[in-house]
Amino acid sequence: MTHNDALRSVASLLHASDATLIEILHLGGGDADLSAMASYLTRDDEEGSVPCPHEVMAHFLNGLVIYKRGQEEGRPPAAIETVVTNNVILKKVRVAFALKDADVAAIFAKAGLHVSKSERAGFFRHCEDRHYRECGDPVLRTFLTGLTR
């Protein structure tokens, strides 16, 4: 799943305007203008579409957590991931919306996908953990679809 797809899904979920998405990006320490954000949100097969870089997506996800949960006093900004994978997107969305494991299971079920508890736990583990599970494009797409329902 491309960063552009994930960005469009989160924008749809939040019913957010381009200006709100830029505000979220700024909260995470990133920078973009309206034309850049519009080009990231443009469908891949349409003219003017530009791939969303890892850095922009990382700042956006950190900003999403702050936008939904607020900034903690005295806490330094979260580190920026150099490569944003589907697992990172899944983790940041879970944190931003304060979802517990039961909530994640319900979201997958609502979207019509059964994901076992151990498989869900594997999505949120560090990539070097032996129980780590890679979150594929269909799984992330299903999760974001279930979240919007």
What does this structure look like?
- With 149 residues, the chain is mainly alpha-helical.
- It has two domains: 67 residues; 63 residues.
- It has eight helices and no strands.
- Helix 1 runs parallel beside helix 8, helix 2 packs across helix 4 and helix 4 runs parallel beside helix 5.
- The chain starts with a helix and ends with a helix.
- The mean pLDDT is 94.
From the structure above, extract its key features:
single chain, mainly alpha, 8 helices, globular
Number of strands: 0
Helix content: 55-70%
Distance between the termini: 19 Å
Quaternary organisation of the protein chains: single chain
Given the C-alpha coordinates, what overall shape results?
globular
Give a short account of the largest sheet. Answer: none
What value does the average pLDDT take? 94
Helices and strands: which structural class?
Answer: mainly alpha
Number of helices: 8
Tally of distinct domains? 2
List strands and helices in order, with pairings:
Blueprint: H1 3-14, H2 18-27, H3 34-41, H4 54-69, H5 86-96, H6 101-110, H7 117-123, H8 137-148
Helix pairs in contact: 1-8, 2-4, 4-5, 6-8
Précis, in short:
The chain is mostly helical and 149 residues long. It contains eight helices and no strands.
